[in-house]
Amino acid sequence: MTAIEIESLHDLYALLQRRGDEQYTGEPVTHRAHALQCAWLAARAGAPDTMVVAALLHDIGHLLSGWPGTPSADGIDDRHEDTGAWLLSRWFGPEVTEPIRLHVPAKRVLAAEPAYCRALSEDSQRSLRLQGGVLTGPAREAFFARPYAQAALALRRWDEAAKKPGIARWELKEAWAVVEQVHARVRRFANTAPA
Ligand SMILES: [Fe+2]
Ligand SMILES: [Fe+2]
Hints:
The protein is mainly alpha-helical.
């Protein structure tokens, strides 16, 4: 499957504009609504702006792969958490990329809670199996030892809550202002860091 070419943050914005209206498979929301709801929930919780960006872009990997429809329905794990984190590392630091990279392992940790597991949609339960199921034993301990484990768990809670029609309180332009603000700070820091 051909991957989508993204060279700039503008390309990323254009991708969300272009494919944002596609239905988030198995959920009653579009990709754009899911992203905006997740970012809005992070902002409402008082999360740092880097987490708002992580929430907005946590599933961008789904749109990068070029797979149409639902890869999990074809028995494919598209590894969207890795693709997204890898791409975003061009413009952002680990405060943004690591919660994204860990949002699937966080789901596998939270799935040990029966209530959490029961609340997952059919598609999310199917992808959970493809992603390796509930995380247990040393792998679970290793997850909690990662620096951004708690951030990933918080992101995952907003992720699950961001699948209800009608709770998107932001427009993409509004949320994108936060993306540009965080990116400008990363660039400023890079320019002032000692060589
Ligand atoms: Fe995801
Ligand atoms: Fe998501």
